Amino acid sequence: MAESTAWSTNAEVTWCPGCGNFGILTALRQALAAARLEPWQVVVVGGIGQAGKVAQYIGANFLHGLHGRAIPHALGVKLANPELKVIAVGGDGDMYGEGGNHLLHAFRRNPDIVCLAHNNGVYGLTKGQAAPTSSLGFTTKHREAGTHMPAFNPLAAGLAMGGSFIARGFSGDTKHLARLIGEALGHRGFGFIDILQPCVTYNHVNTAEWYRKRVYDLEVESHSPLDADAARARILEWPSEEEDVEIPIGVFYRSRRPAYETCGRPGQAVTGFAFDIEVVKKAMGEFR
Amino acid sequence: MTDVTLTVAGQAGQGIDTASELLARALVRSGYHTFSYPNIMSRIRGGHNFTAVRVSDRQVYSVPGKFNALLAMDELSVDEHRGDMVEGGMIIAEPPESPSPRPSPAGGEGEEAGIAFRVPMAVIAEKHGGTKRMANVVGLGALLALTGHPATGLRSLLKERFAAKGEEVVKQNLGCLKAGADYVKKKWGGTCPCELPKQTRQPRRLLVSGNHAIALGALASGVRFHAGYPMSPSTPIMEYLAAKQAEAGLVMEQAEDEIAAINMVIGASYAGARAMTATSGGGFALMVEGLGMAAMAELPVVIVIAMRAGPATGFPTRTEQGELLFVTSASQDEFPRFVFAPGTAEEAFYATNRAFELAARFQVPAIVLSDQQLSDSLWTVPSFNLARVKASSDFDELLWQGRPANSYQRYAFTRDGISPRLRPGTRGQLVRSLGTEHDEDGFQNEDKAVRVKMHGKRMSKFEAMARAVERPTCYPEETAEVIVFCFGSTYGAAREAVDILRAERASVAMVHLCDLVPFPRERVAGLLSPARKVITVEGNSTGQLAILLRRETGIKADEQVLKYDGRPFEAKALAEEIGAKCK
Question: What Å distances lie between residue B159 and B136, B150, B164, CA to CA?
Answer without folding.
Answer: 16, 16, 9
